UniProtKB/TrEMBL annotation:
Residues 1-19 form the signal peptide. Keywords: Signal. It comes from Tissierella pigra. It holds the Pfam family DUF3798. It comes from the Bacteria. InterPro entries: DUF3798, Peripla_BP_I. This is DUF3798 domain-containing protein.
Length: 392
């Protein structure tokens, strides 16, 4: 670059000594060359290597988020730096905050992303903005959305409650006439679970689906999951005998699906989505899928295996879910989005902070489209998302 600048100065000096009749032409040439040099300098600066930090729980604490971070390091080894929060998060909260802040010590760090199912890390983002206001911050955490929107540039969360609308709607499209909801008291005491159930009941009424609520033995106060699963094993055939195979069954608890999906293959009822809609929940066990260790994150292959087994059971189109876990999708999406913003030197304005852009970008970057909605009408940097469905 120094050599280029010296050359330009030499050109300027030579041109200033030429005949006056070419003065205007020479002036234009000098300006053009100088402009090209300035543009080259700008391009060099914009193409300078940068880093994106991703912070997740450890493998043993949350396997999906950890794997997402590790896979992105493998994809962008010189760009992505992955660190993990302490195992004993609550007792070592300050350590976690310090670890996040340490990423900002790297002058090449241009974005810091925290993806964690815990709360309490907001002070790290406040300090990042004091220390490095140039760093783009993105998070998926459990802190108050209002505070996250205040201190973090971009926030994303899976919209678990909106699924109270989308799941019955999909069940209806898949041919269901009855919607059965299995849960238990301690689970229904959780605000998110109760709100989703209420949304399901309301949506079923609007769609003309019969909504049936059934309470199972409580695995948290009784004999654990075994009693709950045994109840499902006995009750599901009774309900299908009563309502017929044009019934969708939803369970609010993950261990329920070892029974629900197994019974679905026998009785041919619909399962529009599991409580945690991922191809790795119950499907591998129930369908006896032989998944090699190196294919654990190969969701295209796993989904193809499920589709084949569904066809063998004459269940094509009766089972559905999401093509990959949202806990893996979201961290990867956030890294791809940060990369796009930094490489294109974009401002966080209405061109980025809008549903249409995020929907389209998610499909382009991830191959799986997400459906984004702002958390409320007064917040433009916090979005809730659900993933498009895959039908087996």
């Amino acid at each position: 670059m120094k050599k280029i600048i010296v050359l330009v100065l030499s050109l300027v000096l030579v041109m200033s000594l030429t005949a006056c009749q070419t003065k205007d032409v020479d002036k234009e040439v000098v300006q053009d060359v100088a402009g090209n040099v300035e543009q080259a300098a700008n391009n060099e600066e914009s193409n300078k290597a940068f880093k994106i930090g991703i912070v997740t729980p450890t493998l043993s604490t949350s396997e999906d988020e950890f794997r997402a971070g590790a896979e992105m390091v493998e994809k962008y080894p010189d760009m992505v730096k992955h660190i993990t929060l302490p195992e004993n998060f609550n007792a070592e909260l300050e350590t976690g905050i310090s670890q996040i802040l340490s990423l900002a010590d790297d002058p090449d760090m241009k974005a810091i992303i925290v993806n964690s199912g815990q709360s309490g890390l907001l002070p790290a983002f406040e300090k990042i903005k004091e220390k490095r206001s140039d760093i783009l911050t993105i998070a998926t955490m459990m802190d108050e959305p209002e505070l996250m929107a205040k201190y973090i540039d971009l926030n994303f969360s899976t919209d678990w409650e909106r699924r109270g609308v989308t799941i019955p709607t999909k069940a209806k499209e898949m041919g269901a006439k009855t919607f059965i909801h299995y849960s238990f008291p301690t689970h229904l005491a959780k605000e998110a679970v109760a709100a989703r159930k209420e949304a399901m009941e309301k949506t079923c009424k609007e769609l003309g689906l019969e909504f049936v609520e059934i309470i199972t033995p409580d695995p948290q106060t009784g004999d654990g999951p075994a009693a709950m699963q045994q109840f499902l094993r006995e009750d599901i055939p009774r309900q299908i005998g009563k309502y017929g195979a044009d019934t969708n069954i939803f369970g609010s608890n993950c261990p329920m699906y070892d029974v629900i999906l197994d019974e679905a293959l026998k009785l041919k009822f619909t399962v529009a989505e599991q409580c945690c809609p991922t191809p790795t929940q119950a499907y591998p066990t129930v369908m006896n899928l032989e998944i090699e260790a190196e294919d654990l994150g190969n969701y295209d292959k796993i989904n193809a295996m499920i589709t084949e087994k569904a066809a063998e059971a004459e269940m094509t189109g009766r089972l559905s879910g999401w093509a990959m876990p949202s806990q893996i999708y979201v961290p990867k999406f956030e890294i791809e989005l940060a990369k796009y913003i930094i490489e294109n030197d974009l401002e966080l304005n209405k061109d980025i902070l809008n549903k249409q852009f995020l929907d389209d970008f998610s499909e382009k970057a991830m191959g799986i489209r997400a459906d984004f909605e702002p958390i409320d009408s007064n917040t433009d940097n916090y979005f809730m998302l659900i993933l498009e469905s895959i039908y087996y």
